[in-house]
Amino acid sequence: QPGIVFDNVVFGYESERMILKGLSFEVPAGHSVALVGPSGAGKSTIARLLFRFYDPLSGRILIDGQDIRDVTQASLRAAIGIVPQDSVLFNDTIGYNIAYGRNGAGLEDVASAARGAALMGLIDRLPQGFDTEVGERGLKLSGGEKQRVAIARTLVKNPPILMLDEATSALDTRTERDILATLRQVSAHRTTLSIAHRLSTIADADTILVLSEGRLVESGSHQGLLKID
Ligand code: ADP
Ligand code: ADP
């Protein structure tokens, strides 16, 4: 099980304005860490650095003790499964959409992806069957159902690291609670980095880090942080 380390990471899109000003934190292997902070704090930037859309100007990012600059793009993508806020679905069946998470998925993969998703409790929470066409961009599904398909699609790849990027931020409170319960099950014992601007979204994390203006200003448990307020 790999952990993630940000070691004194400095980064800015423009040389005059640093977004991350020496950011250090760790997601220990098998643990769940959440980053919270106001809009513009640099949360998405951290996700982009983790996927090497950009590299730090100084400092290092390690996965499983290895500098990610020494890792191939393919193994980086295999190691990290991402659940974004707004998942794009194909105009096809729920099964195909889930199995697409595997390269070159065939019919047999679609069937086994469906079994996997059902075992995780993702599929039977959808009102319609596995063979249902989702419509372009999942138009026939509700926001919550769409996220279940997106989560299942990420999990069939069995990535050792899970990155939740505002994964439930677009959902209403009740649907969010429901999906967070599912995520709690599927992310147990998996290295999980979650970023969100709402504290309710990340209440399940072992550790919560509060990011402001490129630095960590607080860290603690959800309960502990609520006491500060
Ligand atoms: P968050 O996800 O916490 O809302 P971001 O990481 O998206 O924050 O953005 C942090 C800062 O970086 C913001 O001030 C934003 O305007 C700036 N920023 C984001 N992307 C770019 C970019 N591609 N070029 C220049 N500035 C950017
Ligand atoms: P696959 O892993 O099958 O190629 P994914 O849907 O997992 O397809 O996305 C491929 C890669 O695109 C991810 O591993 C990640 O590097 C990047 N990616 C996808 N969505 C996002 C996102 N919302 N934010 C940052 N990176 C993303």
From TrEMBL:
Highest taxon of the lineage: Bacteria
Entry's localization field: Cell membrane
Listed name of the protein: ABC transporter ATP-binding protein/permease
Signal peptide start-end: none
Domain ABC transporter: 4-229
Record lineage: Bacteria, Pseudomonadati, Pseudomonadota, Alphaproteobacteria, Sphingomonadales
